[in-house]
C-alpha cells in the first residue's frame, strides 16, 4: 500500500514560475469541455432545513442530537412550510437540503418543499422509503457493515433494507461515512452496492463539538482511509462518485476550514457575498440563528471533513485553483463529483486527474 500511495501522488506538469492566464488553462479541450459543463450550475444557492426532531434509529455521534436545535418545537403545518419555501425562493434560494433528525418521517413536508423548490437533496437513513413524487436526490447514510450498523445505530440488516428501498432508483446515492473503526468494511460495502447497481460516495466522520469517542479520526486512520478510497475508485469507476481531489481534500490532516476557510456563516462573518449572505440553517420551528448556521451544526470545525461542507467550501474557491492546468483539473473533478451527488439528472464524467493533488498552499499530507 505504501508503494501505491507514492504512485497516487500527483507530479505536477506545471511550468515553474509561469503565471497562467485563465484563457491558457482553457486552451486544453478537456478542461474547457468540463468547465462549460459545470458552470451552468453556478446558479445554485443552498440552504438547509431540519424537518423533524424525531428519528427511527439513534446513532452514536449524531450531529442532530447535539446542541440546542434538537429542542426546537416542531412546526408540522403544511401551509407554513409552503410559505417558507415561497419566501426562500424569493430570497434567491434554488437548492434545498432536507435533514433532521429523519425527513422520511414527515413525507408531506418534503413534498411541499419539492413542489416549491424542485432542486435539492434529502439526507436519510434509508429505512423508510421516500416517494418518487419527491424528486430530490436521496442520500442514504451507511456507517459500516450490518454488524457495525447494529452496534452504532441500533438497527438490524440496515444495508439490505436500504438497498431494497432504493435499488435502481436514480435519485439514490449511498453515502459511506468513514470512521476510525470501519475503514476496511468499505470494501465489503462497495462490492455489495456495485453488485446491486447502486451508486456510492464517501463521507468522513467529523466529530461533533466535545466528542472524544472512538469514531474520531487520527493521522493513521486518515491515511488508511485515503488509500482505501483510491483503491475503490479504481476498482468501481462506474459506481463510485468521487475523485482523487475529493480524496486529497477530505482525508488531509488539516480539516476543510484550515485548508480552504469555511464559507458558512458560523465561521464566516462576512455578509457581502456568497454563503455568508445567503445560507440559512432552519430548525424545525422554522427559525434560524446566524451564529449557528452551518451545513452540519455543532461539528468541531477543526475536525470538519464532512462531504456536505466540502460541496460548498471547496467549490467556492475556484480562483485559488485556477492557477495552472493540473490544479484546475482537480477542482473541476471535485465540482463534477459534487454536482453528480447532489443534483438530480446530472451525470458525472470521467475524472480528469487520477492522482492526488495538494490543496492550494499545502502539501498532499
TrEMBL record:
Keywords annotated in UniProt: Iron, Iron-sulfur, Metal-binding, S-adenosyl-L-methionine
InterPro entries in the record: Aldolase_TIM, Radical_SAM_PqqE_MftC-like, rSAM, rSAM_sf
Gene Ontology MF: a single term: catalytic activity
Superkingdom as given in the UniProt entry: Bacteria
Cofactor(s) needed by this chain: [4Fe-4S] cluster
Protein name: Radical SAM domain-containing protein
